[in-house]
Amino acid sequence: MGYEALPVATPGPPDAPSRGDPPELDILLLGSVDARHVLRTLAQAPRWPLRRFNFFVLENNLEAVARQILILNLAFEPPEKMGLQEKSETFLELWGNGLVRTQVAEYIRAQSQRMRRLLPEPDDLAAELPQLSLEALKFRERDSLEAVFTFWAASEVEASFPLSRLWDSRLRSYLGSRYDARSGVSDWDLHMKLHDRGARVINSREFRRWRETSVAFEIRDASAYQLPNRTLASGRLMSHRGERVAVRGYWGDVATGPFVAFGIESDDQSLLQTRNGMPVKCAGEISQHNVSSLFRALLAAREEASEAEPEAEAEGGTPGSDPAGSRPFRVHFLPLGAAPTLHHRSHFCSRFHLLYVSCGMVHQLSPELGACVAPGGRLVVELARYLVDLRAKQLDSFSDRVRELAEAAGFVAEPHEGPPETFARFSKKPQPVSDELQPQDGPDLCQKAKAPPLDNLIPPSESLTPPSEASEPAPSGLLRPALPPDAAGMLTPPLDSVTPPPEDLSQLIDAEIDPLGMLTPPPGDPTPAPYGNSRPAPGPEDSGMLSPPPGGPANRVP
């Protein structure tokens, strides 16, 4: 929800160099789902002194990893191969539409075939895509990632993916008894939820069209959007006749929509003007302008880096040495579910200058993960501001919970005055002087939060002198102190991230069964969030939460 340039520099004027800035900046992103934050940061990189960015991406499903690879490949297509307007339209369709045009489907198929060819060959992958690194992934994860690209590269005859039918099934499950009044429900969610929270540029026509057809950005004629967007497919374990089988379907967002990411804010304030109380531009037009500006800035930064390469060679660099100016970033994809164990690796201890956590991965924020952030580093957490299923009290409770988890992880909140924001920002507490004077290695520093008190490590005096009749030493396990229990509720995940129990396969008549089980999702919530926020269908107790009052919302909203 929303996008921004990650805060990679110390506070101050953008063009003012800071003596303490490192030559490389390491950024860890948890659950970013797509690459919009990476692209925004790279687009604004020329505002700061030249440095190299290392993005470490950690997701909970391989479909999100594949989508990020595809989006990054699209963003850095050379201008002679794909123009700016075509690239912007392709990005919006691939990123936010359930149905795409024929040329966009062909692009997805071509890139998927390319990645399927490069994944088994690490040398070819490093030569053609030097900005991507898949070395940290496990071999079985690479095989599953190759299976994802294989499905994307298949035609409808080879592997059917009826997204229109799956979308309608998902919408019926979400609305329940309100399905027949879905037009009024969409107006109620838009005017009484999204508009009240700041997204007033989203109009009823485009929001209702997305709820009905899954097409958010209709840049061309409506009849051109016919083929399914296979990048929105995901795998899930379901119960079928007492057995757990892998099922491919759509379990993404059907409530909020992709408009809040690029369509409600802009650097050009003329796009946000209103006349007679109504916005002059809709969210689709603002999204197209923002994406075009983003790709234009990326192209300008790339040309500037290309011009800096001959200067680096003249100063002593060798041709083809690949200086930082010609390739100023690299994206590293980490293994699935590696967040709880990152602090066990010494090269990740106090390494990251910035940690980004999405609202669906807040439960991963812990003192162990905070130990991977360098002293003085920054933490950015995505809030649940635009989740229409949450009420005001629930939003406040979620923000308070984020603050508690951040403080327990060693961060302090940055002062903020004004209306609620989409992101919560924190900074890492500086390391005490007493700790700096003591020699510490990587694992001890990262596990400092879980270390038992020193008194517990000293056995009583009577245990140091064994009795005379004892001929064998006591087992080592008797002298090991018990680890202190975790703080109550510290790692309790929010309600939105709890994995729903397996459902009966008969209820999902539109899902496609994968007999080979190639898309078995990892532990945790295997449902990807195509737009950065995904929610399970509300329960019976929430059925009345979004119900419009008698008479319909049209009579209450001007």
Describe what is shown at a glance.
This protein is α/β, with parallel strands linked by helices and 558 residues long. It has one domain (26-313, 331-430, 496-542).
Biggest sheet strand order reads 4-10-2-1-11-12-14-13
Helix/strand-derived class?
Answer: alpha/beta
Radius of gyration: 25 Å
- Provide the β-strand percentage band: 5-15%
Mean pLDDT: 77
Q: Regarding quaternary structure, how should these chains be classified?
A: single chain
Number of helices: 16
What is the approximate shape? Answer: globular
Number of domains: 1
Report helical residue fraction: 25-40%
| Main sheet summary | 8 strands, mixed
Instruction: Give the tally of β-strands.
Output: 15
Low-confidence sequence ranges: 8-22, 317-326, 433-445, 447-558
Distance between the termini: 26 Å
Structural notes for this entry:
The protein is an alpha/beta fold and 558 residues long. It has one domain (26-313, 331-430, 496-542). It contains 16 helices and 15 strands. The protein has helices spanning 36-43, 62-75, 84-96, 102-118, 122-128, 139-153, 163-175, 182-194, 204-213, 259-262, 283-314, 367-370, 392-408, 433-437, 442-446, 461-464, and strands at residues 24-30, 52-58, 99-100, 132-133, 227-228, 234-240, 243-249, 274-275, 278-279, 329-333, 352-357, 373-382, 411-413, 423-428, 512-513. Helix 2 (62-75) packs across helix 6, helix 4 (102-118) packs antiparallel against helix 6 and helix 8 packs across helix 9 (204-213). The radius of gyration is 25 Å and the shape is globular. Mean pLDDT is 77; it is low at 8-22, 317-326, 433-445 and 447-558. Belongs to the DNAAF3 family. Residues 1-22, 306-326, 412-558 are annotated as: Disordered. Residues 459-476 have a biased composition (Low complexity).
